[in-house]
Specification:
Length: about 290
């Protein structure tokens, strides 16, 4: 069987998302603006299905994640934790075991956020207004971040008496100076857009939401014009270098090139440039799932 069971992610009636795919770019939009796009249960169920389908089946060459309304996302809906580690209704003996099962619940939430990091193609986040709590986890898992001038980032967990646990610290510590991670984590202060750009969390700041999304889509279209194999290899190498030593990363890129280097794609790139036309590269091959 080639890839998992087909899902038309562009026509499925998702609770939390609207999805379009055009010109090699998948655009995933959070679509609950009246509720500030909070991360309800449906969010956690739908996002990995959408992203993994696009990735596994090579339905696009780049993904843009954006939102609607005043705020990008107000973070986790606390009802998501119900049943994961809650001791409500448990027998006294079972309460002692609740933490063990809760650990697996947190792992599930972490895996959902990691679907962006693990996608075969780059993910670009376009952020407006508030990016709060779990939304910081979400956007820190993207490859590239842009935001509006009114955007702000908050590690909200400290303000509700808990430690952020779904991906904020492992990723933010690789994206911005540790001192800033600590200040934000300990105080729960807002990080405004200008400062987020100054410390490297976002690449660029735009005056309006429309300008931000259009720039993200334009960047995605530019990525989609490149060799998908070379782009995928670049993402794998960047992620590997982030998580390993320089020596290990150098060795891994050497091994990768042994199997993935494509002379045909380089030839096409040079030929297209000489002929003053767009390059014509094949898409990635859908992944095999099962037998």
């Amino acid at each position: 069987m080639n890839a998992h069971a087909p899902v038309d992610v562009t026509t499925t009636d998702w609770t939390c998302f609207a999805v379009t795919i055009e010109g090699g770019v998948a655009h995933i939009q959070l679509k609950r603006p009246d509720e500030y796009n909070t991360m309800v249960r449906a969010f956690w169920n739908e996002l990995p299905v959408i992203v993994k389908d696009i990735s596994d089946n090579a339905r696009a060459r780049a993904i843009v994640l954006s939102s609607t309304g005043k705020h990008f996302c107000a973070g986790m809906d606390l009802a998501v934790f119900g049943g994961g580690g809650s001791t409500t209704g448990l027998k006294p003996a079972d309460k002692e075991n609740a933490g063990e099962s809760f650990r697996y619940h947190v792992h599930h939430l972490q895996d959902v956020i990691s679907c962006l990091d693990e996608a075969r193609m780059p993910v670009i986040a376009a952020i407006q207004g508030g990016c709060v709590g779990g939304a910081v986890d979400l956007t820190s898992s993207a490859d590239i971040r842009y935001c509006t001038a009114d955007a702000f980032f908050v590690i909200q967990e400290i303000n509700i008496g808990m430690t952020a646990d779904v991906g904020t610290f492992p990723r933010l510590c690789k994206l911005i100076p540790e001192g800033w991670v600590r200040e934000l984590a300990y105080t729960g202060r807002r990080l405004p857009a200008a400062k987020a750009q100054a410390i490297g969390l976002v690449n660029e700041v735009f005056e309006t939401h429309e300008q931000c999304v259009e720039h993200a889509l334009a960047t995605a279209r530019e990525i989609a014009s490149k060799s998908p194999l070379a782009v995928a290899g670049s993402k794998v190498m960047i992620n590997y270098a982030r998580d390993h030593t320089i020596k290990d990363a150098l060795d891994y890129i050497a091994v990768w090139q042994t199997g993935m280097f494509s002379g045909a794609h380089m030839a096409e790139a040079f030929k297209a440039k000489a002929e003053k036309r767009d390059s014509d590269f094949p898409d990635l091959i859908p992944l095999r799932r099962g037998m």
